[in-house]
Amino acid sequence: MLRRLSAPILMAVKPPYGDIGPSDFGANDDDDDENDEAPGSKNSPPVSSGSNKWDEGLFGDSEDEYPTLNNVICSQLEETLQGVITEMAINTCRYYMTEFRDEVSLQYIINLHDFGNKKFAEKGWRDYLETMIKTDKHDVYVTMTPPKVFLKSRNIDPKRNVKVQYAAKIEPRKIANQILTVRENVCEEIMQDLQSLRNENNEAARFAKVWTEQSYAAAEKTRRPIRMSNQAESTPNRDKNINELNILVTNYAIDLLRANELNFHLSASEHERMVEYLDTNLKEMTEEFEAKDPAYQHMNQFKAPQMLMERLYHNGLEAGVSVSTEEDVLTVNQLKLAQELFKLRIIVMKEAIRLVSNMSLQSRPYYKMIKDLGGFSRIDLSGRPKYTIIDLDEEKAKEEKLAEEEKKEQELLAVAAAKKKQEEEEVEETIGAGILSSDSVHADEDVDLSRDPNDFLGPVMM
Question: What are phi and psi of 231, to 5 degrees?
Fold first, then answer.
């Protein structure tokens, strides 16, 4: 069983590559055709030229003959892609909101389910969208620092600590509709860009061949673009999205190779040695990457898949089928390892394209839910909000005055409580000593009301 991946980063690097410029998917340099010939070694398989025939596999095998993923792995990959692509759509909406200064909506999608910190770690993307769709339109109070022009127009000293508060209306269902629409656009771009993995495999094999026959510097000079970049009418994060998906597909391919899920005619011992060699290479490349400075890591964090393919294929062409160590000789068909990983990337890529194409259909129920719950207003006719000016200096002075009054009141209450307690203690001491006044004694005596009232008067003077 494969582990569930979210958006893994494959830490595998080599010396920095040049920037990839705009090109079409079938880019080909006729000047470098001599580099497309197979290496002189008889054990080396034929390497495809720059023709990039998409109906054929990299090593002559038809892609139609490649094995397919089982239902369990497909379901796992589908759930992973849905979460990752929905997150991409939300981040794209955040970019738009930042550009158009829609801070209210931006803060809403960041704070909902703590998406800004936890993404979909605790609650899935479905719960995130459904919560947004089920929330009605409401007001939120926004406090902001006004520009100096705003203060001067109201004869307020700009040096004063003044804030402006206003009530802004927010429509969660409208935001959810935007996310779903952007997600469909992202899916269309991903279906196009994922096919560039075929070109990446071809370029990695060609690059490794020149690297082996000449040098790394010579190969770097002949580097070819993989896909178009900065295309018109694209979402702003298109390059970043395909780079993340490329890493995800490569990680799935590595996991499939480790698990030997597709059984590429490998014996148990051969598979074990191959996985051990692959893990050793990944560890070395990770250590090389972590040893670089942060600027280098940031610039090359998405180039790992192509670097890995180039390194494995170069090692296969250069070292043949064995790796020698001091203790023993570990026989590993390194070239076959690179070939199988190339094929696995294509297999996962094709399945990912199929799954992404179905994601647009999954948006239909959410559009219907938005409509059934009342929809949203496409145009805000409420006009400009009413601003309330808050002088923080005055508010602070009022708070200090109120705090001082409360302090004095507490002091008076404390004095009264202390006085009352002192009186009670004096009374208790008097009772304890058994000293009572005569007035108190007579007041406590019982009076016989049956006697004649004249008996109490005594002798009367005439």
Answer: -75, 150
